[in-house]
Structures are given as C-alpha cells and as structure tokens.
Amino acid sequence: MSHVVVIEDEGTVRDVLRFHLERAGLRVTAFESTRGTEEALAQADALVLDWMLPGESGLGFLRRLRGDPELRRLPVLMLTARAAEAERVEGLESGADDYLTKPFSAAELVARVRALLRRTLPDTPQTLTNGPLTVDISAAEARMGGKRLNLTRREFDLLAFLTQHAGRVYSRTELLDRVWGADFLGGERTVDQHVTQLRAHLGDDPTRPDFLETVRGKGYRMRPWTDAA
C-alpha cells in the first residue's frame, strides 16, 4: 500500500483529500503545516502539497525539500488556487512533479497521484539479496546460503518487504498496513510473533541480529548486510 503525505492547512480540503485518497486504496498521513512532517516524509511514497500554508509556504518548503539528499526524489503534486501560467511554471521549476489547480475533481486528484507513483516508484526487483539471504519474489521463495527456508506465506511477505526496504525502520502499525493490509483485524503482537519466527528460520540471534533488528521505541528494520558484517 503506497503512503501519501498531504500538507494542506484548510481542514475541509484536507479531509476531502484524505477521504478520496484512502478510498483509492492509499495510506494517508495529513498535516496542516510543514512542521513535524519529517518522520512521515521519510516513509512516504508521494507528497500532496498546498502552495499557500501558514508559516513556511509550500513553495519554500518544496525548494528546501529538493535540497535534502534523502527527499529530493520524493514525487510532489502541488495544489494551488493560482491559475496563471507564470505561477504554474514557478511551481514546476521549484521542483513539483505535477500541478493541480483548485477546485479539482476527486477523480483527477487520484489519477494524478497514481500517475506520479507509477512514474517515479521503481519496479520491485524479482530477486532481492542481502548478504547470504536471497528472496525470489516471483517464486515466493527465500534461501539462506543457498538453503531454502520453509516459510509460511505471511512470513515470506514480511521478509520480502523488509528486505526490499533494508535499512528503513517500520513501526508495527506500518508493517500491519503494508504487509497484512488495512482490513486485517489482528493486533501488533502478530508482527512480533512473525519476526520471532523469521529469526528462527534465519538463525538470527535476537540480542545481536545480523538481519532483523528491533529498534527500541520505533519498530523493526532489515539490517543491510554491510551493517551486519
């Protein structure tokens, strides 16, 4: 499930954006200003950004974003009531990937966000490697040092997701969303149980893991092999 961050100061518009994007199957984190957005943006797949915001403007924030090595490639859809061609050009030249003028239809909003995600997110490689661990997406099979791991489907999905995003920390809630799906009714303990099971398959010592690391107060991450070695 792709994660979209929305920064829009008008509460009604923000609620409408959230409603239609979530209805389209996207996970949404919404803010009324640019303050406190860093953690969400680090986990985001796209940003919907209003031009006129309290404090720092959307345009100023976008310019700052494009100077950040970690976020400069984040796809950005700029929202604005400004319809003049010169202003649209200014937004695009400041780093916006696309531009949508208010008022807009829900269908166009969703279509533009989906187009950004398709255009800018890399295709998932069919084979993932992290040191001696190999995850074959198409075959739904994982191997450690060439030996096949006997995983359940959900164990494989969790391992594949964390391996694909090695180095990034995901909370239990985020993992439930991204691996189990928004309709899953179980609790966060489910994630802990699956991580424990995966560690047993991988031969990972939970006190000094080479692969699945617990980040206190935050969640779990797959350690890149260069960190573990």
UniProtKB/TrEMBL annotation:
Residues 3-117 form the Response regulatory domain. The modification 4-aspartylphosphate is found at residue 50. It comes from the Bacteria. Residues 125-224 form the OmpR/PhoB-type domain. InterPro entries: CheY-like_superfamily, OmpR/PhoB-type_DNA-bd, Sig_transdc_resp-reg_C-effctor, Sig_transdc_resp-reg_receiver, WalR-like, WH-like_DNA-bd_sf. GO terms for cellular component: cytosol; protein-DNA complex. GO terms for molecular function: phosphorelay response regulator activity; transcription cis-regulatory region binding. PANTHER family: DNA-BINDING DUAL TRANSCRIPTIONAL REGULATOR OMPR, REGULATOR OF RPOS. This is Transcriptional regulator. It comes from Deinococcus puniceus. The lineage of its organism: Bacteria, Thermotogati, Deinococcota, Deinococci, Deinococcales.
